[in-house]
Design a protein that fits this description.
Layout: H1 3-33, H2 37-51, E1 54-63, E2 68-75, E3 84-86, H3 91-98, E4 102-104, H4 116-121, E5 128-135, E6 138-148, H5 156-202, E7 213-218, E8 226-234, E9 237-245, H6 249-267, H7 273-287, E10 294-302, E11 307-313, E12 318-321, E13 328-331, E14 348-351, E15 357-361, H8 363-366, H9 377-387, H10 393-405, E16 413-419, E17 426-435, H11 441-454, H12 459-480, E18 488-496, E19 499-506, H13 530-537, E20 540-544, E21 552-559
Antiparallel strand pairs: 1-2, 1-6, 2-3, 4-5, 5-6, 7-16, 8-9, 9-10, 10-11, 11-14, 12-13, 12-15, 15-16, 17-18, 18-19, 19-21, 20-21
Helix pairs in contact: 1-2, 1-5, 2-5, 5-6, 6-7, 11-12, 12-13
């Protein structure tokens, strides 16, 4: 080759390289400027076909659902967009599986050639060049060009060019998928947040002692399928409901909303518990989703008569603990869950409470897994109830739920306690309001120390309680107000008989609910121990909705411990 010919070859190669770089830059910029991946891929395959002097070009993406490659973009005499091919019976499939380029001079002589597309479209495939689209180390599709013009075969230089051009395509497709996934996750997160707020709004407002019914709920997941409710029907009648919807997720939460609203609406008519559940059952049989059902118990407490009447449809046994004799009696459910058979009967039970309490609960408590892997079970729950001694019903329920929360929850856990509470009295001690600025933590610690000293807590308990409130306020500053020190916080102290109650309230957007649990201490990472500290120090704690429905309210209780 003469020197002039050599120089001409170098110039041609340089010009070709510049064209490749320009195309690569154009493709990269196009992918950055839009999230419409289909529109950009259509433009890309047209430009790639022109640059490669090919008759046709296409992009195939792997569909994980049907395990096939689907044409997502196409350029050429025929449009094959939407056509799918088997991974094991095609050249593009061989490219995907091997993760390597395939360069076929005569497609008809290759055993991987699938002529069905040509028969369908009338196109005649001659030579083929394919390269895998690789993102994050995984083949997600194939870039293909067909039939180099003038019946010239694709060569190694063409293969290298196509590999280079495939890189921005693979990156753009992967980024688009991640973006769509993120948008979907954000949409789902918003739906879950709305469902959680709706569920919280359906829970009954907290009643001041000595209201005779106390309830609490701990969701195992983001939203709960459990519910409870209680309401005064007269000076001597309180209605109550506990329920557990089958299934998990948003479907269960939506059925929970319907079931809880339905049972409350029917209960306001003061029908006998048997008729109460019978009417709800007929409604749910007509409208509940196929295969879903509701375990529920509903009844009335008559304080002056010291009488409780209820019906139980599928919930665990009702437990009666007598504090005077320390005896325990249980009643199993006499009817299956609601929503299965419209013609069921729901027998009633009746008992006097005396000096004890009547416990209704969902199977999330008894199904909780202990450290040894065994379920807590009804007997295990009864044994723990026997160990819980506290004057306040809230503390007793709180201790039980805290104990269950520390186990491995497989399902939502809900408990409702009915008992006479004529001896409960609440006394306001003190309160402070301040901005969520770390500089105010010293004032908070001083006030907490002052209160607990007046109540004659020992030095160790004083230090622990001060630490708890310090952590709780810090969490509000960091998480509820996102480090904005201008947010308002209210802290009040009340005495319920022998129990000190801390009410810590902020005015931020909804952050907390009862699904928040202490984190696994086997995970070695800094921070995040605030809930663990509260859980280990307080006798009970829970999140509640403030009376005005805005912000977050953390209620923590500690029985007095004298020197």
């Amino acid at each position: 080759m003469s020197q002039e010919q050599s120089l001409q070859t170098v110039e041609n190669n340089s010009a070709g390289t510049l064209d490749q770089l320009k195309l690569l830059a154009d493709l990269s910029q196009a992918f950055v400027q839009t999230l419409n991946i289909d529109e950009t891929l259509d433009l890309a395959v047209e430009q790639i076909a022109g640059h490669m002097n090919a008759e046709a070009s296409s992009v195939f993406l792997f569909n994980i659902k049907n395990k096939k490659l689907i044409c997502r973009a196409s350029f050429g005499p025929v449009d094959i967009k939407g056509i799918d091919v088997d991974v094991d019976k095609s050249i593009v499939g061989k490219t995907l599986n091997s993760g390597h380029c395939q360069m076929i001079r005569d497609a008809k002589l290759d055993h991987s050639y699938n002529c069905s597309v040509d028969r369908l479209t009338g196109f005649q495939t001659k030579s083929v060049l394919c390269t895998p689209l690789i993102a994050a180390g995984e083949s997600i599709g194939v870039l293909q060009v067909l039939n180099k013009e003038a019946d010239i075969y694709f060569d190694r230089r063409d293969r290298d060019i196509l590999r280079v051009l495939a890189s921005p395509l693979a990156l753009a497709i992967n980024n688009a998928r991640l973006t769509i996934r993120l948008v979907e996750q954000n949409r789902l997160k918003k739906e879950i947040t709305l469902a959680r707020r709706l569920q919280r709004s359906l829970l009954p407002p907290r009643k001041k002692p000595p209201f005779p019914v106390v309830g609490t709920n701990v969701p195992a997941y983001e939203v709960s399928g459990d519910f409870y409710d209680y309401f005064s029907l007269s000076e001597d009648c309180v209605g109550f409901v506990v329920g557990d919807v089958s299934g998990k997720g948003l479907d269960a939460s939506m059925l929970m909303v319907r079931a809880s609203s339905l049972l409350r609406w029917i209960g306001k008519d003061r029908l006998p518990p048997s008729k109460w559940l019978e009417k709800a059952n007929k409604e749910l049989c007509e409208s509940a989703s196929r295969g879903m059902f509701v375990c529920a118990a509903a009844g009335y407490f008559y304080p002056k008569q010291d009488k409780v009447v209820w019906s139980n449809a599928g919930l665990p046994p009702v437990i009666h603990k007598c504090s005077e004799s320390n005896k325990v009696h249980t009643w199993i459910a006499d009817a299956p869950p609601l929503g299965i058979d419209a013609d069921l009967d729901f027998p009633e039970k009746e008992t006097s409470i005396g000096g004890g309490g009547l416990y209704f609960f969902t199977d999330g408590l008894t199904d909780a897994r202990l450290e040894n892997g065994e379920q807590l079970g009804t007997e295990g729950l009864i044994n723990y109830i026997n160990t819980v001694e506290a004057e306040s019903a809230e503390v007793r329920v709180g201790k039980i739920i805290t104990y269950v929360r520390r186990q491995q929850l497989a399902d939502d856990a809900t408990m409702l306690l009915v008992e006479r509470r004529d001896n409960i009295h609440e006394h306001y001690l003190d309160g402070i309001s301040f901005q969520a600025d770390p500089v105010n933590l010293k004032m908070v610690r001083t006030k907490v120390s002052e209160i607990v000293k007046e109540l004659e807590f020992d030095d160790k308990s004083e230090q622990q309680l001060v630490l708890c409130l310090d952590e709780a306020v810090t969490n509000i500053y960091r998480h509820a107000y996102n480090n904005d020190g201008s947010g308002e916080i209210d802290l009040s102290f009340k005495l319920q008989n022998n129990t000190l109650v801390f009410y810590l309230r902020d005015y931020a957007a909804l952050v907390y609910d009862n699904s928040i649990k202490p984190r696994d201490l086997t995970q070695t990472r800094p921070g995040g121990l605030g809930i663990n500290i509260i859980d280990s120090v307080m006798d009970s704690w829970e999140f509640a909705t403030p009376k005005d429905g805005y912000g977050n309210l953390l209620i923590m209780k500690k029985e007095l411990c004298h020197k």
